[in-house]
């Protein structure tokens, strides 16, 4: 799968570990930065390009990280066509895709440890949108808000 990933300084170390794990698992990974640990950087500078790539179909799914995951989630959700959510539990990691066609998972590196983050990302990537009529109907209402 083509995966995009981005993080500010708060998620930088976890991003670096996830990039290696994703590549080892056979995924094609596009890293949107940060490319160095800079405490003065800003999450929108990395998360917005990632979200844009997801919206354009340049990557199939996105992973956005910051310290809490909140800022990354807010920024990614502002991009039309992106369905991003802050995830801290396995059920939401797969259910968000199955029911809500979530295409960007947001994680807080100070909220979840690496092992849990990898588990959440793995569940997110393995999940598929159900396509059920009720879910399509709800997503159409959300998409109408973007227009």
Distance between the termini: 29 Å
* The CATH superfamily title: Sugar-phosphate isomerase, RpiB/LacA/LacB
Q: Quick one: CATH class? A: Alpha Beta
Helical stretch count? Answer: 6
Low-confidence stretches: none
- Counting structural domains, the number is 1
Largest sheet data: 5 strands, parallel
How would you describe this protein?
With 147 residues, the protein is an alpha/beta fold. The protein has one domain: Sugar-phosphate isomerase, RpiB/LacA/LacB (Ribose 5-phosphate Isomerase B, Chain: A, 3-Layer(aba) Sandwich). It has 6 helices and 5 strands; from the N terminus they run βαβαβαβαβαα. Strands 2-1-3-5-4 form a 5-stranded parallel sheet, sandwiched between helices. β4, α4 and β5 form a beta-alpha-beta unit. α2 packs across α3. The radius of gyration is 14 Å and the shape is globular. It starts with a strand and ends with a helix. The model has no long low-confidence stretch (mean pLDDT 97).
Outline of this structure?
The longest helix is centred in the last third of the chain and has 14 residues, at 133-146. The protein has six helices and five strands, in the order E-H-E-H-E-H-E-H-E-H-H. It has helices at residues 12-24, 44-56, 70-77, 90-100, 114-126, 133-146, and strands spanning 2-7, 28-31, 61-66, 84-86, 104-108.
